[in-house]
């Protein structure tokens, strides 16, 4: 499942991950460390909602 940042609309796609910030492709959103932030606007992981 993809997740969207409610602040800037960045979409976290587990198939892609966030390699530039140490999140490998295939990493489910739930397994991202709690201190990870949005790579575009730097809000916390708590500011993401699941995409329908």
Order of neighbouring strands in the sheet with most strands: 2-1-3
Structural class: mainly beta
For the biggest sheet, the summary is: 3 strands, antiparallel
Determine the mean pLDDT.
Answer: 97
Instruction: Please indicate the percent range of residues in DSSP E strands (runs of 2 or more).
Output: 15-25%
What's a concise summary of this model?
The protein is mainly β. The chain is built from no helices and three strands.
Helix/strand layout:
Elements: E1 3-5, E2 11-12, E3 48-50
Antiparallel strand pairs: 1-2, 1-3
Explain what you see:
The protein is mainly beta and 52 residues long. It is 0% helix and 15% strand. The chain contains no helices and 3 strands. Strands 2-1-3 form a 3-stranded antiparallel beta sheet, with no helix packed on it. β1 (3-5) and β2 form a beta hairpin. The N and C termini lie close together (8 Å).
Keywords:
single chain; 52 residues; mainly beta; three-stranded antiparallel beta sheet; globular
């Amino acid at each position: 499942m993809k997740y969207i940042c409610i602040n800037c609309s960045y979409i976290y796609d587990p198939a892609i991950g966030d390699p530039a910030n140490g999140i490998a492709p295939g990493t489910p959103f739930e397994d991202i460390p709690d201190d990870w932030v949005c790579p575009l606007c730097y809000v916390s992981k708590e500011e993401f909602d699941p995409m329908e």
